[in-house]
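A quick word before the example. In earlier lectures we treated sequence and structure as two separate objects. From today on, think of them as two lines of the same record. Here is Methylenetetrahydrofolate dehydrogenase written that way.
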Amino acid sequence: FDIVGSYVARYNANFFSGAYMSASATEASSAKVIDGKTVAKQIRDEIAVEVSRMREAAGVIPGLAVILVGDRKDSATYVRNKKKACETVGINSLEVNLPEDSTEEEVLNHIAGYNDDPSVHGILVQLPLPSHMNEQNVLNAVRIEKDVDGFHPLNIGRLAMRGREPLFVPCTPKGCIELLHRYGVSIKGKRAVVIGRSNIVGMPAALLLQREDATVSIVHSRTTNPEEIIRQADIIIAAVGQPNMVKGSWIKPGAVIIDVGINPVDDPSSSRGYKLVGDVCYEEAVKVASAITPVPGGVGPMTIAMLLQNTLISAKRIHSFE
Ligand SMILES: NC(=O)C1=CN([C@@H]2O[C@H](COP(=O)(O)OP(=O)(O)OC[C@H]3O[C@@H](n4cnc5c(N)ncnc54)[C@H](OP(=O)(O)O)[C@@H]3O)[C@@H](O)[C@H]2O)C=CC1
Ligand SMILES: Nc1nc(=O)c2c([nH]1)NC[C@@H]1CN(c3ccc(C(=O)N[C@@H](CCC(=O)O)C(=O)O)cc3)C=[N+]21
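And the structure line, produced from the sequence above:
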């Protein structure tokens, strides 16, 4: 089933049916909501089954170690969510919380300990690190067999090469592609645009789309006339960090939108004083796109589900369990 194709047909039928199309007919063309929260729950259930099968047959419990440096509130929230998610599927979680003024050497020591710890199958260093640390040094120190974030340069290099396979695919881009697959969106031969080129989201997302045989454009802060490029896309992955940047008028009718952005904006009516919005203006996009992920409840929960999946894959590989 091809959401893009069927939607375009429906849209065009509406669009060309006459000059007197009513406002309600336009509103009827509302995008399908891609429910990342529900899909993530399904995936967690699948992982839980595998984790207990492995525990019973091989006596192995997958373990994930998370290193958090400093006390950024958002990082602390994400780490707490990851820990909770581990518990729901039966994965062991270990956590070390180092003070903001720790040295790089202390972080490296903890990584070395987890590298050698046979109960740990995945190591995640929560980003961003404090500015006095060299992120490259730290990420390079994670043993590639335990690099469940997929951030090691050898993993990224393999992801970029034809005929090579990375040990781990980065969680957020993997979650984006998983959503497209589970919603029956065909990628092969489609025009895809990735907005953003960061090492952790945009760049690996573009590589994955290319591996799936999409024709990929990458839009970044130096792109001239980004709207023109975005308007050609059948599939848009937005990972910019700019609230509501992508407007409805930039979107090709029937496009599928994966909104990775998680941006806090002031909201006096919320008890927290802020709310989360994506990089895409949802209210406008929902009228033009054929399918769209909401924020929250879209890519975010998928990122965590993919982290659990990578940890399970790692434990299976280390223990040669099939
Ligand atoms: N849902 C999830 O699980 C996750 C969500 N996120 C969210 O995704 C968003 C992006 O994160 P991340 O990739 O880490 O962010 P970065 O800040 O590392 O990268 C942002 C990218 O967007 C580009 N960019 C910035 N402004 C513009 C603009 N006006 N027009 C076009 N491109 C622009 C930058 O271009 P240039 O390279 O030229 O500087 C850069 O490549 C954030 O909102 C973040 O919170 C992040 C990780 C996981
Ligand atoms: N080494 C490393 N790996 C990461 O994967 C990593 C990281 N560092 N640093 C920060 C980003 C961000 N990130 C998110 C994960 C889940 C949600 C998530 O679950 N969001 C919920 C909302 C959460 C809320 O309400 O606060 C949602 O979108 O529905 C969001 C963001 C992982 N990251």
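Notice the following. Residues 77-78, 81, 124-127, 149, 171-172, 262, 276, 295-297, 300-301, 303-304 surround 5,10-Methenyltetrahydrofolate (ligand 2) (CB under 6 Å). We will return to this example when we discuss secondary structure assignment.
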